[in-house]
Amino acid sequence: MKGVQIVGTGHYLPKEVLTNEYFEKIVDTSDEWIRTRTGMVKRHRVAPGEATSDMCVEAAKNALDMAGMKPEDIDLIMVGTVTPDMLFPATGALVQHKLGCRNIPGFDFEIGCSGFIYGLAMGYSFITSGLYKNVLMIAADALTTITDYTDRNTCVLFGDAASAVILTSSDKNKLLGFSLGADGSQDKILYMPGGGSKIPATEESVKNRLHYIKMEGQSVFKIAVERMIEALKSACDMAGIEPSKLDYIIPHQANLRIMDAVRKFAKLDEDKLVNTLAEHGNTSASTIGIAFDKFVRDGKIKRGNLIGMTVFGAGLSWGGAVVEF
Ligand code: ACO
Hints:
The chain is 34% helix and 24% strand.
């Protein structure tokens, strides 16, 4: 069985920036509340007409550039997203065309914030099975397009972004451990009720604001801490490494208090926590990829470093991974 390694990383943040002060003007909130309860300072928002596939293409170009590859070198594209350009065709297929790839497969998978780690696991499987050699895995969401800007409980949290990695077949395996899970019984604490087959779009569904994210923040918080710790621990067990021996930990960037709880469980110093949350807020599937790429490009994450990742999201779903960069 062949191994897998990450040869390129990239991310993209749209131009428009929404500051905490912006939210003070539109809902009953404050910069102080947002900073202390979440750790967020700003987020980015797509321009009118800018779609998830456009963000994916920019993140992919950066990852290809780092890998020293061209679009024609890619054998498979996967896009983890809950905000595809359209319900169909797949955003992955649109990216195939926009990026100028050969007629390779391009598809989407939908598992909320857990997309980046589920995507790594799928890329690993496609490559180790021998089916494909070079996989472009993108995790991207334009959550501002499904955010209710009258709901202070959620609107301050979310931003738009894409992150990408190029996974390639290698003699030495560097994707060392995975742990994935889901619990569909908790579907109503984080969801978007309308727009699917259960409640298709109608005048009524729009009037009742069913096409926006609904979240019970505190319930999500509690389960997130437990599941993210468990997922990290299981992925470390599979990799045969103690969490305290990781060079860096990249938790889903959704709340600094959650991220810190995971860091403390792993018995890692503060400088081992990859934290870029203040700069982009919760961008759903892409947060881990953004944080990873930023630290790689800043020269903080170096080749050979062992990185622990852990995530939690709608489903409910969760995942952990241990990666040697
Ligand atoms: N500004 C001011 N006050 C607010 C705001 C706001 N933006 N939002 C909520 N409040 C108020 C609430 O109304 C409540 O007021 P009350 O006590 O008078 O009822 C008070 O603040 C406390 O609310 P809580 O919900 O208890 O606040 P909490 O400390 O739990 O923080 C938060 C809320 C930030 C949403 C937190 O629960 C959280 O981060 N949850 C997890 C979210 C998460 O990790 N999601 C991951 C998956 S989702 C995804 O990634 C797409």
